[in-house]
Automatic annotation (TrEMBL), chain A:
Gene3D superfamilies: P-loop containing nucleotide triphosphate hydrolases. Residues 7-243, 260-504 form the ABC transporter domain. It is found in: Cell membrane. GO terms for molecular function: ATP binding; ATP hydrolysis activity. Its main location: membrane. GO terms for cellular component: plasma membrane. It comes from the Bacteria. This is Simple sugar transport system ATP-binding protein. Keywords: ATP-binding, Cell membrane, Membrane, Nucleotide-binding, Repeat, Sugar transport, Translocase, Transport. Pfam families: ABC_tran.
Automatic annotation (TrEMBL), chain B:
Its main location: membrane. It is a multi-pass membrane protein. It comes from the Bacteria. InterPro entries: ABC_transp_permease (IPR001851). Keywords: Cell membrane, Membrane, Sugar transport, Transmembrane, Transmembrane helix, Transport. This is Simple sugar transport system permease protein. It is found in: Cell membrane. GO terms for molecular function: transmembrane transporter activity. The chain crosses the membrane at residues 13-32, 39-61, 67-88, 95-116, 154-170, 201-220, 278-297. The keyword Membrane applies. One of its GO terms (cellular component) is plasma membrane.
């Protein structure tokens, strides 16, 4: 069946002002009513291609043809006027506004000179019902979960009359449940006649809901395929240019002494709801301990406490025998702890600072890096160059601002910084979220190297594949409690894990206690 | 000490607080609007100064204080427009642009004053007009309240009205929503077709408009003539008031009043035998104390929250 052509991008080339060729003679076409996946590693040029379709960037060469007519999309407004909407990788919402305010921003319903807020709420409710995307119009966006924010984004685009909906890595920030919900919603949108572009790294997802796939690699299109005609292996081969090994060989060695011990750690929020309830576990040298769980079940608070941004009060946290009560992140780091934060854009990196500045930002104040008030710039430059090479960061040099790198490369810099100090304990929070397969594998390899060198690693991840493959032992958190301790995670099926994560199953006290006693 | 209380607890003092707050409040509202749009207008001082001179000159040549007021406001808006043009169009750094405006205003007003009146210090030789004071019927006869709130310059009342207008504008109108969205997340605004540049232009023009009113008040209400550098740091104090007021309309108004009170106190204390230099530091000392109080109360709040958490767990 030859699909009904809706939009075509012909011979698109995009050269950014800094000289990066992000797209090179790319062909892309959209058929009416399909869900079309764009897959490719980080930095392959997917977002760039979509930004041109949404009028945020202008192609250096090539043309965009919509319904048989060439169109010029000079601004997002142009694209919106043509019925194109986009949900960005980083949400475009105003946190202090309510959902309804975000919905109508730029097209506010008026009563006299003021905004007709009731009308805005009504519009939001109407769209919410029509597309079965349930949101609370009066809730403040900053209080919403990531999944909710995404719904608001989708509704925003639909309210503006989007027939073509572009979703840039929508599942990167979602829990498995939220992802499933999103898929149901997208399928429904498709049935209502919308055309959807779906960018993802996760091939399973792509296989699950997409009709066709365009594969991109290094700024070029590697072709377009019917989803049912290609296997995951074939796709990943075209994406990465090599076969992806999804298994890691880990040396089996006896564990060392405990590095992190958490005893009966409890915490409640303002309303008295328990966030953490008697959490207890150990991380030993040479061990990767994974923490799995649906987001919002206490993982964030646990990490905040371990990294000093939340005070440890009820219970005890010790690193190498030292009680860290009252310690800030610097003092905790001085105990030999490294931390890869979940949010690399806000916490992990200083976007406008150079790669080399970011690399030394945790140790600029040590003797090794400075002479009194002056930094040892030669030494720093050498360190940066070495790390860039070792971690294969694709960049123009150590002085490039880190914000210009693609997500995967930015994350490699963060990982390089955290691994380079030879930590005794590494706390890795979603270390490969939104990162392409190649970079993710590389980061996994580095975590295993650390473990093999005798360091302890605490891995918090929503990526089940990652956590099952890497962990030596696995904790599952549900509603602030540890509900399971699993000693051979690789032998556990995703289904079994899911039952623990959703709170349907839980181990008995004794089995869970093994996390401390083993 | 008792003489100090004699100075402060009088209706004259309360009246003078409102009187000296007026220009600070106008400029602070200007700072508020531009800051909420994510662009800090540090040219307020210069804009006020140019407006003050324009008011005097226009009213002197037209013989009308109201036309003078329009001239002042127009000049303030225009100067702010120039600043906006350079920063938003040519991408000059706003701080550089603002500093340039302030320096240009300081020198330029003296130059024009000299051209028109032959005097470099003040506009005594120009027959400029003053905006009227207003007695409020009924209110003016109430004891205590009457002497405090009645009989002010018409611009003082306008500044109070302006507080409500700005509050409503920011909270309830489409422009206010757009200004706040641009200040908080410009990409979000851009992505739904709100032009960040256009909103920031509007905000800076409004900012200049209010600073213009403040400037007009200086030379056509507070005093009845223009003198060299007569704004004397009020544009800067307004910026401090806005940030101490945490970028809210209510907070900004209250801190403006606080600075006004400090200013009025400095004026009032001059009758006592305290060195004038020391008194002159009062508004600035108030700033520092205000910031400390703010910081302490914030950290108390944080601690209380933590304590609460601790109790619960
Ligand atoms: N605004 C920009 N300026 C310069 N280079 C950019 C910009 N945005 C992206 N790039 C570069 O273009 C390439 C493609 O990026 P992108 O389209 O974001 O890839 P993807 O979405 O596939 O991960 C990357 O090398 C990235 O560093
Ligand atoms: Mg991208």
């Amino acid at each position: 069946m030859m699909p009904n052509q809706l939009l075509e991008m012909k011979n698109i080339t995009k050269v950014y002002p800094n000289g990066v060729v992000a797209n090179q003679n790319v062909q892309f076409s959209l058929a009416e009513g399909e869900i079309h996946a764009i897959v490719g590693e980080n930095g392959a040029g997917k977002s760039t291609l979509m930004k041109m379709m949404f009028g945020m960037e202008e192609p250096s060469e090539g043309e965009i043809i919509l319904r048989g007519k060439q169109v010029l999309l000079a601004s997002p407004q142009d694209a919106i006027d043509h019925g194109i909407g986009m949900v960005h990788q980083h949400f475009m919402l105003v946190p202090s506004f309510t959902v309804a305010e975000n919905m109508v921003l730029g097209m506010e319903p008026k009563k006299g000179v003021s905004i007709n807020y009731n009308e805005a709420v009504r519009m939001t409710e109407e769209m919410s019902k029509k597309y079965n995307l349930l949101v609370n119009p009066k809730a403040k966006v900053e209080d919403l979960s990531v999944g909710m924010k995404q719904k608001v984004e989708i509704l925003k685009a639909l309210l503006r009359g989007a027939e073509i909906l572009i979703l840039d890595e929508p599942t990167a920030v979602l829990t498995p449940q939220e992802t499933e919900e999103l898929f149901r919603e997208l399928t429904q949108l498709k049935q209502q006649g919308h055309t959807i572009v779906f960018i993802s790294h996760k091939l399973k997802e792509v296989k699950a809901i997409c009709d066709r796939i365009t594969i991109m690699r290094a700024g070029k299109s590697e072709g377009v395929f019917w989803t049912k005609d290609v296997t995951e292996q074939e796709i990943s081969k075209l994406m990465v240019g090599r076969d992806v090994v999804l298994r890691y060989d880990k040396e089996k060695k006896p564990y060392g002494a405990p590095i992190l011990s958490v005893t009966d750690f409890s915490l409640a929020d303002e309303t008295g709801k328990a966030l953490l309830d008697k959490v207890a576990f150990k991380v030993r040298g040479g061990e990767i301990v994974g923490i799995a769980g649906v987001e919002g079940n206490g993982q964030t608070q646990l990490v905040e406490a371990l990294t000093g941004s939340l005070a440890v009060r009820g219970g005890n946290v010790a690193i190498k025998g030292t009680d860290i009560q009252g310690y800030d992140i610097r003092k905790i780091r001085s105990l030999g702890v490294s931390y890869i934060p979940e949010d690399r854009m806000r916490q992990g990196a200083a976007k406008d600072a150079s790669i080399s500045d970011n690399l030394i930002s945790t140790q600029y104040n040590t003797k090794a890096m400075n002479n009194g008030p002056f930094l040892k710039s030669k030494k720093i430059a050498k360190l940066a160059t070495t790390l860039i090479e070792e971690f294969r960061v694709r960049c123009s040099g150590p002085n490039q601002p880190i914000g210009m790198l693609s997500g995967g490369n930015m994350q490699k810099v963060v990982v390089a910084r955290e691994c380079s100090t030879a930590p005794d304990l590494l706390i890795a929070e979603q270390p490969t979220r939104g990162v392409d397969i190649g970079a993710a594998q590389f980061i996994h390899q580095k975590l295993i190297e650390l473990r093999d060198g005798g360091s302890g690693v605490l891995l918090i991840s929503a990526d089940l594949n990652e956590i099952l493959e890497l962990s030596d032992s696995l904790l599952v958190m549900y509603e602030g409690q540890i509900v399971a301790y699993l000693e051979e995670p690789w032998a556990v099926s995703e289904e079994e894990l899911g039952l623990y994560m959703l709170g349907i199953n839980r181990q008995d006290e004794q089995q869970i206690r093994r996390a401390v006693e083993a | 000490m008792s003489s100090l209380f004699n100075v402060i607890f009088t209706t004259e003092f309360a009246f003078s607080v409102l009187r000296v707050t007026t220009p600070i409040l106008f400029a602070a509202l200007g700072a508020l609007i531009s800051n909420r749009a994510g662009i800090i207008n540090i040219g307020l001082e210069g804009i006020m100064l140019v407006a003050a001179l324009s008011g005097v000159v226009v009213s002197a040549y037209t013989g009308s204080s109201w036309v003078g007021l329009m001239g002042a406001v127009l000049a303030g808006t225009l100067i702010s427009g120039i600043l906006a043009f350079f920063t938003l169009h040519f991408k000059t750094h706003i701080i550089l642009g603002g500093v340039a405006i302030n320096m240009f205003a300081s020198g330029g007003t003296v130059f024009i004053l000299y051209l028109l009146s032959g005097d470099k210090g003040s506009s005594t030789s120009l027959p400029s007009k003053v905006l009227p004071s207003v007695d409020i019927p009924l209110l003016k006869d109430i004891p205590v309240l009457g002497p405090i709130f009645s009989g002010h310059n018409v611009l003082t009342y306008m500044s109070i009205i302006a507080v409500f207008v700005v509050y409503y504008m920011l909270k309830r109108t489409p422009l206010g929503l757009r200004i706040r969205s641009v200040g908080e997340n410009p990409q979000a605004a851009q992505s739904v077709g709100v032009s960040v540049v256009k909103v920031q232009y509007t905000a800076l023009l409004l900012s200049g408009f209010f600073a213009g009113l403040g400037g007009a008040y200086m030379s056509m209400g507070y005093l009845s003539l223009f003198t060299r550098d007569m704004t004397a740091g009020r544009g800067w104090i307004a910026i401090a008031a806005e940030s101490m007021g945490r970028s809210t309309t209510v907070g900004t108004t209250l801190t403006s009043l606080l600075f006004g009170a400090a200013d009025a106190l400095a004026n009032a204390l001059q009758v006592l035998k305290i060195p004038a230099e020391l008194i002159g530091t009062l508004p600035y000392v108030t700033t520092v104390i205000g910031l400390i109080v703010y910081a302490v109360s914030e950290s108390r709040k944080r601690n209380r929250k933590l304590k609460r958490l601790e109790k619960k767990s």
